[in-house]
């Protein structure tokens, strides 16, 4: 009786080639994915600033002045928009940012002007600063490779 054993499985070379192919694909896909995430975060922050600006314009239409205040943080901004007194800690309604985990927001306003700012705090947008004012002037700073609103 002649019994031969057939071997099945992969050789070490085949496995190493497979791992190398996966590594090459990951090296190509990861930067593209990170760029997509950064761009997505910036677009959301831009939308948040536009929504905040619309809230300020709505306030202006009702009061004929912008809320004279400098505020940072979502709660304080909401208080300003609602015209709440200074010790406001939990507003019942108002502007709610979608990117609160990746950006910190602030308002600087006089009776006739305002500037709203989003400063990146998340990993992919750290240091990015987006601004919007009452004249719809928009700027983006310190956010390579982007140099203007998307």
Instruction: Enumerate the spans where pLDDT stays under 50 for 5 or more consecutive residues.
Output: none
Task: Summarize the main sheet.
Answer: 5 strands, antiparallel
Number of helices: 2
Q: What oligomeric assembly is this protein in? A: single chain
Bin the strand percentage: 15-25%
Element pattern in H and E: HEHEEEE
- The whole-angstrom Rg is 25 Å
Structural class from helices and strands?
alpha+beta
Total domains: 1
Mean pLDDT, as a whole number? 84
Distance between the termini: 76 Å
Q: Give the number of DSSP strands.
A: 5
Order the strands across the largest sheet as they lie in space: 1-2-3-4-5
What percent of residues adopt helix (DSSP H or I)?
40-55%
3D shape: elongated
InterPro entries: Bac_GSPG_pilin, N_methyl_site, PilE-like, Pilin-like
Transmembrane segments: 12-33
Protein name: Prepilin-type N-terminal cleavage/methylation domain-containing protein
Keywords: Membrane, Methylation, Transmembrane, Transmembrane helix
Task: Explain what you see.
This protein is α+β, with helices and mostly antiparallel strands. The chain has one domain. 41% of the residues lie in helices and 18% in strands. Strands 1-2-3-4-5 form a five-stranded antiparallel β-sheet, covered by helices on one side. Strand 4 (129-133) and strand 5 form a beta hairpin. The longest helix is centred in the N-terminal third of the chain and has 52 residues, at 12-63. It is elongated. The mean pLDDT is 84.
């Amino acid at each position: 009786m002649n019994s031969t054993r057939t071997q099945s499985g992969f050789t070490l070379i085949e496995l190493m080639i497979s791992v190398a192919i996966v590594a090459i694909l990951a090296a190509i896909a990861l930067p593209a994915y990170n760029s997509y995430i950064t761009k997505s975060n910036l677009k959301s922050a831009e939308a948040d600033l536009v929504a905040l600006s619309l809230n300020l314009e709505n306030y202006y239409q009702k009061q004929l002045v912008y809320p004279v205040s400098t505020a940072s943080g979502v709660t304080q901004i909401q208080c300003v928009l609602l015209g709440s007194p200074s010790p406001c800690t939990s507003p019942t309604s108002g502007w709610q940012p979608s990117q609160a985990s990746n950006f910190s927001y602030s308002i600087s306003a006089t009776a006739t002007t305002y500037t709203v700012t989003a400063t990146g705090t998340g990993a992919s947008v750290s240091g990015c600063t987006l601004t919007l004012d009452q004249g719809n002037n928009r700027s983006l700073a310190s956010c390579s490779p982007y140099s203007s609103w998307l």
